[in-house]
Amino acid sequence: MSVLVFIESADGAIKKSSLEAIAYGAAMNQGDVTALFLGQIDQAELEKAGNFGAAKVLHVNDERLNNGIIQAYSSVLAQAIEKTGARFVVLAKSALGDPVAARVAIKINGSFVSNVTGLPDTNGGFKVTRSIYTGKAFANVEMTSDVKIIGIRKNAVELNESGSSATIETFDAQLSDADFGVQIKNIEKQEGDVLLPEADIVVSGGRGLKGPENWGMIEDLAKTLGAATGCSKPVSDMGWRPHHEHVGQTGVKVSPTLYIAVGISGAIQHLAGVNSSKVIVVINKDEDAPFFKAADYGIVGDAFEVVPKLNEALRAAK
Amino acid sequence: MKILVCITHVPDTTSKISFSDNNTKLNSAGVQFIIGPYDDYALARAVELKEASGGTVTVLNVGEADTEPTIRKALAIGADDAIRINAFPTDSYFVAQQIAAVAKEGNYDLILMGRESIDFNGGMVHGMVAEMLGLPSVSPVMKLDIDGGKATLSREIEGGKETLELNLPFVAGCQEPIAEWKIPNMRGIMSARTKKLEVREPAQAETKTKLDNYELPAPKGEVKMIDKDNVDELVRLLKNEAKVI
Hey, which residues does A4 pair with through a beta bridge? Predict the structure, then answer.
């Protein structure tokens, strides 16, 4: 028995969600954990996978894989499953991981369940709990195939550091031209920012901020907290903020430990994207804003007054 | 160009979710069903592409007879005809096999659907279908332009977007702002009544997962209100009570 974990990087470091996937693989207690990384990266960074429970890292050191190409990645992952004989594959939910795993499930005749919220129940069958209806409910499902692919949601498991380091083995995967049928022409990406789906803390702004020119205080607050910035759907629809910051039913679903909503009334579609946050703080000048019902802490007040004061207080408390 | 658009029939985004039959079925009493919002974007773009350069748009749904009003709405929006696979969409693997069977027969140039359904949020059917058909797949797609046999599209990535090029045919999972949702007009609604909605029996297919039961999240505790002139208190609570900073 063994577990294979597909890991990704951001800005040259293994993503925190991928470290969680490694920790999940180790906590499953189904044999040795091997991590798989595609593309070029600093070897010392890969060794860190050991700290979270991977005995080994398979590294496909191929510069063509520096950017995520769904077909090429799924070919490599399927080959790695075959090579390691893994019965379980774990990956963190991401814009790349999910479409890759879907293809791999077909290649290896396995099952794939995404949005898994905790460790499996292996008493009689193999059952996992997944989040459904955009966080409004859960489903307990049994995976009945031989090889099982599990896509985990953020915070599905706690990170524990063991102090070990993983051994790295180069893996020469076979890739064909067809794997590169989709060509990346251009990438526009904000470097150095905390990625929204990865963030432990998210600060979001809504229409209550009145215009894109007022986002400075949201960014300042996020900076103080080491947080990512998000926004409501109207804000991204009006072009005040880029689409990848839209949090909600049809945008990014986040599950940070702390979500701070500023000037967002809390439409049910927005709540759907944040309802798995551990703690929610709502700042809104309308005391009847529905968001307060979903919050843990609330402040009724003008964002332009409260947010700078809160930022000041947080900085002083550091 | 022949476009296949796969749609889901899902509870409206504002629905309150509850379950019946020992927590094994969605309680549909009082629930309004709609075309999956992401599928709706895919459909809107398909209709635009057809209007710009000709061709046909076929809508496909895997579902029992109760999904037909949703399919008719897609016809009213501008699809030319529809296929309903007469089966409950048991799991994503089952649904993907049904779509692949239709796609193989229909020889489509483009297969579009939403990036995920909003009931099970799996986001995997497009990838599965593409793999079954040996086609490329791209998701989530925010922009899609076709020029002859070639497509240029933009895909959302964490922290930004990438521009991609590929040849038809392929499968795409779509999201905003690929197109604006279309609201059916009276002419569309009238013509939808007479458009062809073919019902097919499902292809022989397996499932890979089995539902045990559903659960609702634990109710949220009371919100603690803090005075706007006492933000230090909030900082203290986040630090000492919630322990999140």
Answer: A34, A89
Cβ–Cβ below 8 Å for A105 and B124: yes
Spatial separation of the C-alpha atoms in residues A189 and A203, rounded to whole Å:
20
B121 near A CB under 8 A = yes
A303 interaction partners in chain B (CB closer than 8 Å): none
**Secondary-structure percent of chain B, ordered helix, strand, coil, rounded to 5:** 30, 30, 40
- Mean per-residue pLDDT for B149-158? 93
Residue A100, Cβ density class (10 Å: 0-12 exposed, 13-18 middle, ≥19 buried): buried
What part of A 188-227 touches B (C-beta under 8 Å)? 188-190, 193, 195-198, 201, 225
ipTM: 0.92
Per-residue pLDDT reduced to its tens digit, A106-131: 999 999 999 999 999 999 899 999 99
Q: What percent helix, strand, coil does chain A show, rounded to 5?
A: 35, 30, 35
Write the pLDDT tens digit of every residue in A271-315. Answer: 989 988 999 999 999 999 999 999 999 999 999 999 999 999 999
Which residues of chain A lie closer than 8 angstroms to B121, CB-CB? 114-115, 131-134, 253
Token reading at A246: 């839209």
For residue A229, which amino acid is it? T
Banded pLDDT at A134 (limits 50, 70, 90): confident
How far does A98 lie from chain B, in Å, by closest CA?
7
Show the domains of chain A with their CATH numbers: 2-180 (3.40.50.620), 196-317 (3.40.50.1220)
DSSP annotation string for B72-98: HHHHHHT-SEEEEE-S----HHHHHHH
Whether the predicted pLDDT of B226 surpasses 80: yes
Q: Chain-centre distance of CA B88, in angstroms?
A: 16
- CA dist B40 and B176 (Å) reads 10
Q: What domains are defined for chain B?
A: 2-214 (3.40.50.620)
Query: Is the minimum CB–CB distance between B162 and chain A shorter than 8 Å?
Result: yes
Q: For chain A, what percent of residues have pLDDT higher than 70?
A: 99
For A25-155, strand residue ranges (E) read 32-38, 56-60, 88-92, 111-116, 127-132, 137-143, 148-152
Q: Kindly indicate the confidence band of residue A192, based on its pLDDT and cuts at 50, 70 and 90.
A: low
Mean pLDDT computed over every residue of chain A: 94
Cβ of B242 within 8 Å of Cβ of A10? The answer is: no
pLDDT given at position B164? 96
Task: Give A163's pLDDT tier (boundaries 50, 70, 90).
Answer: confident
**Mutate which of A6, A70, A117, A122 to disrupt the B interface (most B C-beta within 10 Å)?**
A70
Is A102 in Cβ contact with B126 (below 8 Å)?
A: yes
Count of helix runs (H) and strand runs (E) in chain A: 9, 17
Q: In chain B, which residue's Cα lies nearest the Cα of A318?
A: B245
Helix (H/G/I), strand (E/B), else coil: B227 = coil
Strand positions, DSSP E, B42-200: 56-62, 81-85, 110-114, 137-147, 150-157, 160-167, 170-174, 197-200
